[in-house]
Write a structure and sequence with these properties.
CATH class of the largest domain: Alpha Beta
Number of helices: 11
Number of strands: 14
Largest sheet: 8 strands, mixed
Distance between the termini: 51 Å
Strand order of the largest sheet: 8-9-10-7-11-12-13-14
Structural class: alpha/beta
Shape: globular
Radius of gyration: 20 Å
CATH superfamily of the largest domain: Dihydrodipicolinate Reductase, domain 2
Helix content: 25-40%
Order of helices and strands: EHEHEHEHEHEHEHHHEEEEEEEHH
CATH architecture of the largest domain: 2-Layer Sandwich
């Protein structure tokens, strides 16, 4: 029997996830919610089966007989939809960031955990082979203490009008760099943060009244256990290349992840070292978005937590908010 899936939001990310779901057995996209039905046309036309368009999420919950819900909306558009969905027993996939503000994210987490549904957050970097191999080695005690995470997310894009508006996106750190901050928290946690230092600046877009977010950032987190995370961001780098490099140094191990930034020159690669010796070298050009969706669906079917539960989405939001507050 197929899982009946609905979407809130019909934009690019909804289309990307629905495209992957079409490749996963026993799934069926049956409904989409958008306040302007005409904007859902492209989403509907791309689906292999019949999709009903709704303008209100609660009506969709009542009429579409869903098993799971994908929420793929801009940060400012997050409201109590997730809370209402989990109260209906729906399993929920959320795009990042899970909310614009931490208090809303906390309410979402509490509701999801109280209803014991499966949740997944769209941090697809977690499904990189090097990331999975290093985390497994850490869990098995092979790497010793994590000491340093160094990461960056550099690009140069205009984005949608809402993306350039701090009141709607939260800024590049909140909406985009959160991918890298999630990885830092994944490797350096679960130790509590001891201190955060942040620097945000709009250095090259100050002449544009429609651009109120930062285009340059640095965030530094220090763990209570002593490890340090340093992440830099830029929206002044290579146009429409999305460079997301990171390195993790542990007492007895190290991961070096190289991102080509969607370049046609060098593929994404990662190299893992354990006890001073190379433990693996991987091509990282696989479809991690497909892997992310497969994990969510298999977790629902098996009745166990997904790889990236909603609480991890809250943790990443708390990390980026700490940088914003410290800047």
């Amino acid at each position: 029997m197929s899982l009946r899936i609905g979407f809130v939001g019909a934009g690019q990310m909804s289309q990307q996830h629905a495209k992957r779901l079409a490749k996963i057995p026993h799934t069926e996209v049956v409904a989409v919610c958008h306040p302007r039905p005409a904007n859902a046309r492209k989403f509907v036309e791309a689906q292999p089966g019949e999709v009903t368009v709704f303008t209100e999420a609660e009506t969709m919950f009542q009429e579409a007989a869903l098993d799971a819900l994908y929420v793929c909306v801009p940060p400012f558009a997050q409201d109590d939809t997730v809370e209402k969905a989990v109260d209906q027993g729906l399993h929920v996939f959320l795009e990042k960031p899970i909310a614009l503000e931490v208090p809303l994210a906390r309410r979402m987490v509490e509701a999801a955990e109280a209803n014991q549904v499966v949740t997944q957050v769209g941090f697809q970097f977690r499904f990189r082979e090097g990331v999975r191999r290093l985390k497994a080695a850490m869990n098995q005690g092979e790497t010793g203490q994590p000491t340093l995470f160094s990461g960056r997310y550099w690009t140069h894009m205009d984005g949608n009008p809402w993306w350039r508006d701090r009141t709607k996106s939260g800024g590049q750190v909140v909406e985009q760099l959160i991918h890298i901050y999630d990885l830092a928290a994944h490797f350096m946690g679960p130790a509590d943060l001891e201190k955060t230092t942040g620097y945000l600046a709009n250095l090259c877009h100050g002449n544009r009244p429609d651009y109120t977010i930062e285009d340059t950032s640095v965030g530094v987190h220090r763990m209570q256990a002593g490890g340090v995370s340093v992440i830099t961001g830029s929206n002044n780098a290579l146009p429409m290349h999305f460079i997301g490099d990171f390195r993790v140094v542990c007492e007895n191990g190290m991961l070096d992840y190289h991102s080509s930034g969607q370049s046609w020159v060098n593929p994404d690669r990662s190299t893992l070292y354990l006890n001073g010796e190379k433990a693996g070298d991987w091509d990282e050009t696989g479809d991690v978005t497909l892997a992310l969706n497969e994990d969510f669906i298999k977790s629902i079917q098996a009745g166990h937590p997904a790889e990236i539960p909603i609480r991890d989405g809250l943790r990443a939001l708390e990390w980026v908010q700490a940088v914003v507050d410290a800047s």
